[in-house]
């Protein structure tokens, strides 16, 4: 197994020759620069906080710096450093602030930021000076001597006057450079471990976040399963009975004497049963369209576009099969958007585009209507936004007055595995012709 | 051959008992014989092998998965026996299903009807007979939805030509279309000639041009 931290790396026999010493130096150097900058910033904010305006940014700077530090830790610590923060309970700055100030993680980040700005960056710099600066200074002795011609003062302490002496010093520098790489890696390892301890979620936090997401996802799954159950019950029960009824009535009409009152009554009953059947069919389709399960999102969207009163162009070709909950949320978002376009937009044309790239499904529904759509008023859209949020996705509406309107759904989901693609070989061909 | 007096041997696949019994009764009423009535896709394929029927009538959704097993069985049957007429009953209008079915084989002798349609018993019996005779029947509801889509290559067609093509897709003969539109059969023939020309379907020995036109129409 390849080493994942400097500590693991420095036990390897070829450690000085690999990339790790470079990583270590890069980590410490960027730490020194960042820490010095943070120190300067804190000084400025500290002055301002005397008149209070600097206080909120001072408190929040920990959050920003924590984020940067988690990214920077990746230089020497290959395991992911997850974000310890919770998702705010509601959109908006106020909710965000409420959530953040109540979190222990926020204050741990602030403590780390202050530590970095005051103690850690000078330590980083010191470690670099001793571990890299000193050997490099010794190594440069022959050059210094060559430049000066007569003498060179190495590390401002030791006077060298001859080339043999200078090369001996340089050799010492080379040996030291290799030897000091080990303690330097240990220091960097300790720094990264400290950052990880303070800036990533504690076990208890990890569990809490994981559980909240898991329970919401379970709820969505349960909701989907319930939809399918209702759809199937209607299909296997009520719909079947109605079809059988219309069939019986149809046969009865064949046998009834034509033109008589009985034929008339039967015709009326037949027609009403047929209408009930049509309504039921539309209802069932709205609950959970079978085409979504059988063919996936692309054809299901094309099908929804077919039903739209406003002409809709669909461009959802070559979408792979995606997780059920994702396909379902995106489909219903598309349907809701089309329904809104038909009802409110005054649009003459609409266009649906769906793409899956880099692990994100993106669905765009555009129209050429008069715009001004307000997601806050449409209860349908709010519900959809909630469903999409559970899947870690976002729903965005851009609808300036005068139009046009663009509704965008983005849901992160992994690329499908080969097996899930091969289980629906017709997807590509059927969506390809839309 | 006249359709009304032809007695068909039918293999029926429908998992709902109520509907299955109803369909058996309906088919008997029109003089056809259901030689096997089965409830799942595997049994359907076995029954076809055992009875070599004149026509297969199948539901789309069947056990065990309650997805599109019936449709897939129909497509597979068509691949094995291109001449076997198949009529698929679907819960609702689905262009993808209809297109899959028409793609299996040369598109003749297939039908795709909404389940509701069996209530219109005479229309249903007529559609069944047309499919058995090698016709192509696509549910008017599918046709109606497709008419809303005005896209290439149908863009070149006049509204009247589109109307005629829609009726061709429903599996109607020139005579029937002429009666429906209250024009002469010659006029219908001329419209169809124009449609075939505009869709770039030149006369050929071994293709059924009307079916190709319908396929173009479904894919547009």
Task: Please explain how this structure is put together.
The complex is a heterodimer of chains A (434) and B (220). Chain A has three domains: 6-201, no CATH class; 215-287; 291-422, Heat Shock Protein 90, CATH 3.30.565.10. Chain A is built from 15 helices and seven strands. Chain A has helices at residues 6-9, 20-49, 55-73, 93-102, 104-139, 141-148, 163-199, 203-255, 261-287, 290-295, 297-307, 324-345, 379-390, 418-422, 426-432; strands at residues 152-154, 158-160, 312-315, 350-357, 360-367, 394-398, 405-412. A five-stranded mixed sheet of chain A has the order 3-4-5-7-6. A two-stranded antiparallel sheet of chain A has the order 1-2. In chain A, a hairpin with a 3-residue loop joins strand 1 and strand 2. In chain A, helix 5 runs antiparallel to helix 7 and helix 11 (297-307) runs parallel beside helix 12 (324-345). The model of chain A is unreliable at 418-434 (pLDDT under 50). Chain B folds into two domains: 9-147, Response regulator (Rossmann fold), CATH 3.40.50; 159-219, Winged helix-like DNA-binding domain superfamily/Winged helix DNA-binding domain (Arc Repressor Mutant, subunit A, Orthogonal Bundle), CATH 1.10.10.10. Helix content of chain B is 50%, strand content 13%. Chain B has ten helices and six strands, in the order E-H-E-H-E-H-E-H-E-H-E-H-H-H-H-H. Chain B has a six-stranded parallel sheet with strand order 2-1-3-4-5-6, sandwiched between helices. In chain B, strand 5, helix 5 and strand 6 form a beta-alpha-beta unit. In chain B, 50% of the residues are buried. The A-B interface holds A 232, 235-236, 239-241, 243-251, 253-254, 270, 273-274, 277-278, 281, 284-285, 290-291, 293-295, 299, 302-303, 306-307, 311, 426, 430, 433 and B 16, 18-19, 22-23, 25-26, 29, 60-61, 66-68, 91-92, 94-97, 99-100, 114-116, 118-122, 145-146, 148-150, 219. Chain A: One of its GO terms (cellular component) is membrane. Chain A: Residues 226-292 form the Signal transduction histidine kinase subgroup 3 dimerisation and phosphoacceptor domain. Chain A: InterPro entries: HATPase_C_sf (IPR036890), Put_sensor_dom (IPR025828), Sensor_HK_TwoCompSys (IPR050482), Sig_transdc_His_kin_sub3_dim/P (IPR011712).
């Amino acid at each position: 197994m390849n080493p994942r931290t400097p500590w693991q790396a420095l036990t390897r026999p070829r450690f000085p020759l690999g990339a790790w010493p470079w990583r270590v130096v890069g980590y410490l150097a960027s730490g020194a620069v960042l820490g010095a900058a943070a120190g300067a910033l804190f000084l400025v904010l500290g002055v301002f906080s005397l008149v209070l305006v600097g206080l909120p940014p001072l408190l929040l700077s920990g959050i920003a710096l924590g984020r940067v530090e988690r990214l920077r830790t990746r230089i020497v610590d290959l395991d992911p450093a997850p974000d310890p923060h919770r998702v705010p309970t509601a959109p908006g700055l106020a909710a965000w602030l409420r959530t953040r100030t109540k979190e222990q993680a926020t204050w741990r980040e602030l403590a780390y930021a202050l530590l970095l700005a005051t103690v850690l960056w000078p330590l980083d710099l010191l470690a670099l000076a001793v571990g890299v600066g000193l050997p490099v200074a010794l190594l440069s002795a022959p050059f210094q001597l060559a430049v000066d011609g007569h003498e060179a003062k190495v590390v401002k302490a030791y006077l060298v006057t001859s080339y043999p002496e200078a090369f001996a010093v340089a050799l010492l520098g080379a040996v030291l450079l290799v030897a000091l790489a080990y303690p330097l890696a240990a220091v960097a390892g300790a720094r990264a471990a400290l950052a990880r301890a303070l800036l990533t979620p504690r076990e208890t936090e990890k569990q809490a976040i994981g559980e909240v997401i898991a329970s919401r996802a379970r709820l969505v799954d349960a909701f989907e399963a319930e939809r399918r159950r209702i759809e199937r019950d209607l299909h296997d029960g009520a719909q079947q009975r109605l079809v059988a009824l219309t069939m019986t009535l149809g046969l009865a009409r064949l046998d009834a004497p034509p033109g008589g009152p009985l034929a008339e009554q039967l015709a009326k009953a037949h027609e009403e049963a047929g209408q009930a059947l049509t309504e039921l069919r539309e209802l069932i389709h709205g609950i959970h369209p079978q085409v979504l399960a059988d063919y996936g999102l692309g054809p299901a969207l094309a099908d929804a576009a077919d039903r739209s009163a406003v002409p809709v162009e669909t461009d959802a070709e070559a979408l792979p099969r995606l997780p059920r909950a994702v396909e379902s949320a995106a489909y219903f978002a598309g349907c809701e958007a089309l329904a809104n376009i038909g009802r409110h937009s005054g649009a003459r044309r609409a266009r649906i585009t769906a793409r899956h790239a880099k692990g994100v499904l993106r669905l765009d529904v555009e129209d050429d209507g008069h715009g001004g759509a307000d997601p806050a008023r449409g209860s349908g859209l709010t519900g959809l936004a909630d469903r999409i949020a559970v899947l870690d996705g976002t729903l965005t509406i851009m609808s300036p007055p005068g139009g046009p309107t663009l509704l965008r759904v983005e849901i992160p989901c992994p690329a499908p595995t080969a097996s899930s693609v091969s289980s629906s070989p017709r997807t590509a061909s059927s969506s390809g012709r839309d | 051959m006249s359709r009304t007096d032809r007695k068909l041997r039918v293999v029926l696949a429908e998992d709902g008992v109520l509907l299955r019994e109803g369909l058996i009764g309906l088919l008997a009423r029109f003089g056809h014989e259901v030689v096997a009535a089965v409830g799942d896709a595997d049994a359907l394929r076995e029954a076809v092998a055992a009875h070599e029927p004149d026509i297969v009538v199948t539901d789309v959704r069947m056990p065990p998965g309650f997805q599109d097993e019936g449709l897939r069985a129909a497509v597979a049957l068509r691949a094995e026996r291109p001449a076997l007429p198949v009529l698929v009953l679907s819960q609702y209008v689905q262009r993808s299903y209809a297109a899959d079915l028409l793609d299996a084989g040369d598109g003749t002798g297939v039908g795709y009807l909404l389940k509701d349609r069996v209530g219109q018993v005479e229309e249903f019996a007529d559609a069944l007979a047309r499919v058995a005779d090698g016709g192509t029947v696509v549910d008017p509801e599918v046709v109606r939805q497709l008419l809303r889509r005005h896209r290439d290559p149908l863009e070149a067609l006049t509204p009247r030509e589109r109307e005629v093509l829609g009726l061709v897709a429903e599996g109607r003969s020139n005579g029937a279309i002429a009666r429906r539109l209250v024009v002469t059969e010659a006029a219908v023939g001329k419209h169809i000639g124009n449609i075939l020309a505009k869709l770039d379907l030149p006369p050929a020995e071994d293709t059924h041009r009307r079916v190709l036109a319908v396929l173009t129409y479904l894919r547009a």
